[in-house]
Amino acid sequence: MFKNDPLANTAPAPAAPVALSRRNLFKLGGLAAASVSTPAIARGFGTGFTHGVASGEPGQTRVMLWSRFVAEQDTTLEWEVSQSLDFAQIVSAGSVIATPSRDWCVKTWANGLTPGQWYYYRFTAPDGSQSEVGRTRSLPEGAVPRFRMAVFSCSNYGFGYFNAYAHAAEANDVDIALHLGDYIYEYNAGSYPSEREAVVERVLFPSEEIVALADYRLRYATYRSDPDLRRIHQLLPMIAVWDDHESANDSWKNGAQNHQPETEGSWDVRKAAAKRAYREWLPVSDDPYAEYQVGDLATLLRLDTRLEGREEQFNIGDVIQGKRTPEEIGAALTAFREGAYREESRELLGAAQQAWLADRLKSSRTGGTQWQVLVQQVLMGELFTAPRLAEAVPPNAPEFIRRRVQASTLAGNAGLPANMDAWDGYPAARARVFEASLAADANLISLAGDTHNAWGFDLAHSGQKVGVEFATPGVTSPGLESYLGAIPPQDLSRAIVNHNPALKYADTSQRGYMVVELTPESASAEFRFMAGIRQRSTRIAGTKRIVASAGSRELTI
Predict the structure, then answer these.
(1) What average pLDDT is seen over the chain?
(2) Cα 210 to the chain's mean position, in Å?
(3) Which has the closest alpha carbon to 239: 517, 447, 25?
C-alpha cells in the first residue's frame, strides 16, 4: 500500500469519443477480422495520448508498461521509470513504437527494478507531449508480512458506472489489482443490458455485437475511456485473465454459445481477433498461463479456463430435450449424471496446462511458499439449485430465464449442479486439480469471478479438505436478484447456503469487489459492496470479511 502518495489525490480526465458512430467509422467498408490498420477508429478518440497509462505482469525486477498514442504515422515514444514523482533519478528507460498495426497501443518491459518497490512511469512523444504519470509496483522477495489484492470481475459498461474501480482507487490500500475476466462484453446495445436496464449515458461503441478485429478494438476504446477504469490502471499494476465475454458468451476452445458461424464466420478468426485486441489494449503478456511469486508468502498462478483447453459445455436442456414426463426427464438426467457427466477424459485446462499447474503447486510448496493462489475465472465450489427457487421466478421474467432456472432446478433434483459452464460442469478436471493440490500439500486458494455474485466456499475432494475459494461480485453485471427478485435477498442467500454444505457465504444482490489479504497466518476476503451503480459514486453499502487460517483449508465466517 502507498497511502500517502500524492498521485492518488489527482484524478485523470476521461477520454471522450469524438462524433463516433458505426456508420462513419465503417465508410471504408469491408473491415474484416483480419484487418490490422484502423486509424479511422483510433481517431474517434482523438490524437496523442488518448487513454492514459497502465501496467501489469509484475515481477521482482520488471513490470510491463502500457499506453496509447494516436498519430499520422508510426511514432517512437520514450518512456522512463523513477522512484520519485519528480523523475529526478531515472531507474529504467527506453523507447517503443506506436503503430496502427497495434491500434496505436504500446507495451514495453521496464527492467532492472528493485523488488517490493513502488515506481512512477511516463511516456513522452517527439513533440514533447507526455502521458499521464502512472504508478506501479514490483513484487517483493524474501519474507513478506502482508500482501493485499483488489479483485474485480464482470464489468458491463451499459449496466452502470464502474464505482468499484473508483472506490478501490480512492481507498488506495492494496498492492495490486486482479481482473478475473469479463473486462468487456461483446453484446450489441439493447441486448445485455436491455434498453430498459441500460444507463442512458453509457453509450456503447460499436452499437452492434463485436465480431471483427475493428469491433473489438473500438469496444476496448470505449471501455477504457471510462475515467474510473482508467484510474485504477493508472494507480495499480494489474494481473488480468480473460473469461468468455472478451470473445463471446460461454466460449470454449472450438466455439461459443454466442457465436453463429453461419452469420458470423469462422470461430478461429473471431477468437484470434478477440485475443489480439485484448493483448493490444491491456498490459498482459501473450502467455496463456503464468506464475507470479510474492516472496515467501504466495505463488499466484494465472490460469486459462476458457480458451486454452476447455471442451464444450454440457447443456441440461439438451439432456432432457424431447422428454415429456417427469419419469422420462428423471431417467435422462440420471443416465447423464452416471455417464457423460463423469467422463474422465473431459478437460477444462487441457493436459499441458494441467501438468504445468501440478508442477508449479509442488514447486511452490517445496520452495517454502505459504499460499498457492489460483487466479482464474469460474467457480470451483460445488453449487446446487435449491428446489424452491424455480417457484420464485416472476411471471413476466424473460423466457430464457425461466428455462434456465427450470433446467437448473431439475438438475438439482437429480443431484447435478446448476452451472455447467463452471468447474461443476467438469468434475473429472476439477478432481485432477484437487489431487495435484493434495499431492503438493498446498494451502490452496481459488479466486473466481464470472457469476456476478459474492461467494465463499470450502473445497474438498474424497473427504479431504483441499482449500478455500473467494469469488468476487460483479463490478456492474447483475446477479441472481435480476431474475429471482421475488425472493428477498437475505432469504435467497440463506436458502442457497443452507442447500449447499460447501458454501459458507453468499451475497446474490450487490455489486462491488473484494480485497484479498494474505499473511503468513491467514488469508481473508473483504467483500466491498457499492451503494449503487446507476450514478457515479464511491459510497459503499457495507462490507463482509471471511477468513481461512493457514493450514486449516476451511473458512471462518
Answers:
(1) 92
(2) 19
(3) 447
CB distance 419 to 500 below 8 Å: no
DSSP code at position 453: S
Would the pLDDT of 47 be above 90? yes
Contacts of the segment 314-317: beta carbons below 8 A, 24+ positions apart:
314/340, 314/341, 314/420, 314/425, 315/420, 316/407, 316/408, 316/410, 316/411, 316/416, 316/420, 317/403, 317/407
**Nearest to 513, CA basis, from 468, 458, 449, 437:** 449
Q: Sorting pLDDT into bands at 50, 70 and 90, what band is 396?
A: low
Model confidence pTM above 0.85: yes
Q: Span 132-148, mean pLDDT?
A: 98
- Pairing verdict, β 290-294 and 255-256: unpaired
Is the pLDDT at 468 greater than 70? The verdict is: yes
Nearest CA to 319 out of 337, 334, 338, 332 is that of: 332
Alpha carbon dihedral 62, 67, 69, 75, in 10-degree steps, equals 10
CA distance 434 to 419: 19
Q: Are 422 and 383 in contact (CB under 8 A)?
A: yes
First to last CA, the chain: 26
**Can you read off the three cell numbers belonging to residue 167?**
472506490
User: Do 282 and 183 contact (CB within 8 A), yes or no?
Assistant: yes
Structural contact between residues 504 and 185, judged by C-beta atoms closer than 8 angstroms: no
pLDDT at 405 over 90: no
- With H, G, I as helix, E, B as strand and everything else as coil, classify residue 523: strand
Cell match 441472481: residue? 480
Determine the length of the chain: 557
Strands, E assignment, 99-229: 105-110, 118-124, 134-137, 147-152, 176-179
Q: At what angle do helices 163-171 and 227-235 cross, to 10 degrees?
A: 30
Q: Whole-angstrom Cα distance, residue 520 to residue 542?
A: 27
Q: Mean of the pLDDT values across residues 133-148?
A: 98
Q: Within a 10 A sphere around the Cβ of 287, how many other Cβ atoms?
A: 10
What are the backbone angles phi and psi of residue 427, rounded to the nearest 5°?
-65, -35
Q: What percent of the chain has pLDDT over 90?
A: 83
Is residue 92 within 8 Å of 135, Cβ to Cβ?
no
Kindly write down the DSSP assignment for every residue of 535-551, as one continuous string.
Answer: S----EEEEEEEEEETT
Distance of alpha carbon 241 from alpha carbon 131, whole angstroms: 26
pLDDT at position 487 is 80
How far is it, in rounded angstroms, from Cα 367 to Cα 281? 35
Please check whether residue 421 is in contact with residue 448, taking contact to mean a CB–CB distance below 8 angstroms. Answer: no
Which residues are 65's β-sheet partners?
Answer: 55, 108
Helix (H), strand (E) at residue 281: helix 267-281
* Set of cell numbers at residue 48: 496523442
Q: For residue 36, is pLDDT > 60?
A: no
Cell 433446467, located at residue:
407
Give the strand order in the sheet containing 134-137.
Answer: 90-98, 75-82, 118-124, 134-137
- On whether the CB atoms of residues 242 and 307 are closer than 8 A, the answer is yes
State the pLDDT confidence band at 10, using cuts at 50, 70 and 90.
Answer: low
Q: Are the beta carbons of 305 and 348 closer than 8 angstroms? A: yes
